[in-house]
């Protein structure tokens, strides 16, 4: 039996986050900045600047997500927090925009917007484990709604494109579809 644990990403876990993301910063050097700043601003930053941006965000608190461990080693990440913390996730042009525009600023409406699972740990149920950890974290932090905008299908369970998660994983965790603005990308919600 695999020992899996997950913890909020606090500054004392920074080195584990860096270990998981590797020297390139995961997902083509994103460092989980994609939903945090406009594309025009993000494109001006190199990998080191994106890394510094997310480090400053982690140090400022509250934790911007959860770090998962397999056998004590960093293995998985999920970005989860209030919608306001990921402003690009709320853009009127995105499939993840809120049903009610006021939800974008409501501290009790949270977004589970990104995953990164280390390559050795993909296809082994760790996305399911991270969603469950995120649900618990959101609930303990006062969220009343948790939303996601996953992919309905991917070529394989190890696809890097699954950074938004798989619809199957969210369905298994009790999320329901509340909108579909683009084929294959449902907006899903779980009441907490």
TrEMBL record:
Domain of life, per lineage: Bacteria
EC number in record: 2.3.-.-
Alphabetic keyword roster: Acyltransferase, Transferase
The keyword Acyltransferase appears for this protein: yes
Claim: Transferase is one of the keywords in the record: yes
Main enzyme class: transferase
Occurrences of domain N-acetyltransferase (ranges): 4-192
One of the Pfam families matching this protein, by short name: Acetyltransf_1
MF GO annotations: acyltransferase activity
Name the UniProt record assigns to this protein: GNAT family N-acetyltransferase
Organism: Rhizobium puerariae
């Amino acid at each position: 039996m695999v020992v899996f644990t997950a913890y909020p990403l606090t500054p004392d876990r920074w080195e584990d986050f860096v270990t998981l993301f590797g020297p390139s910063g995961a997902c083509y050097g994103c460092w989980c900045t994609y939903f945090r700043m406009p594309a025009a601003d993000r494109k001006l930053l190199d990998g080191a600047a994106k890394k510094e941006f997310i480090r400053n965000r982690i140090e400022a608190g509250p934790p911007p997500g959860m770090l998962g461990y397999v056998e004590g080693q960093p293995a998985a990440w999920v970005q989860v927090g209030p919608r306001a913390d990921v402003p690009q996730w709320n853009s009127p042009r995105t499939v993840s925009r809120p049903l009610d525009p006021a939800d974008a600023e409501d501290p009790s409406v949270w977004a589970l917007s990104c995953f990164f699972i280390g390559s050795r740990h993909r296809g082994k149920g760790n996305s399911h484990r991270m969603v469950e950890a995120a649900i618990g974290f959101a609930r303990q932090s006062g969220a009343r709604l948790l939303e996601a905008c996953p992919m309905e299908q991917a070529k394989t369970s190890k696809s890097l494109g699954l950074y938004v998660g798989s619809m199957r994983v969210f369905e298994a965790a009790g999320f329901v579809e509340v909108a579909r603005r683009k084929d294959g990308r449902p907006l899903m919600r779980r009441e907490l």
